[in-house]
Amino acid sequence: NLRKQVSPSESYVASMFAKGINKIAQKVGEEAVELVIEAKDDNKELFLGEAADLLFHYLLLLNAKGHTLADVLAVLRKRHSK
């Protein structure tokens, strides 16, 4: 990913990768909690915003671990075929 190669001061993605896997994982947890909080209310925009934030950070975490969303989908397909 080219964004990882950019200076951390110029790119949020690069700054997250510079902080390391623990920070990325922590951010996924924070975003998941925020999504759960918004799920209890009826504000569609806030809920979808938090869902987008969680998905974005989840994709960063997958990338940091050397995986893709396709890898996760393959696991789900395998589970479904049993």
How many runs of DSSP E, i.e. beta strands? 0
| Fraction of residues in helix | over 70%
For the record, give the distance between the C-alpha atoms at the N and C termini, rounded to a whole number: 34 Å
Share of β-strand residues: under 5%
Low-confidence stretches: none
Q: Averaged pLDDT, please?
A: 91
Structural class per helix/strand content?
Answer: mainly alpha
Characterize the biggest β-sheet.
Answer: none
Number of helices: 5
**Shape, per Cα inertia axes:** flat
Backbone CA Rg: 15 Å
SSE order, as H and E? HHHHH
Describe this structure in a few short sentences.
The chain is mostly helical and 82 residues long. Helix content is 78%, strand content 0%.
How would you describe this structure to a colleague?
By secondary structure, this protein is mainly α. Helix content is 78%, strand content 0%. It has five helices and no strands. α3 runs antiparallel to α4 (44-64). The longest helix is centred in the middle third of the chain and has 21 residues, at 44-64. The protein is flat.
Topology:
Elements: H1 2-5, H2 12-19, H3 21-39, H4 44-64, H5 69-80
Descriptive labels:
mainly alpha; 82 residues
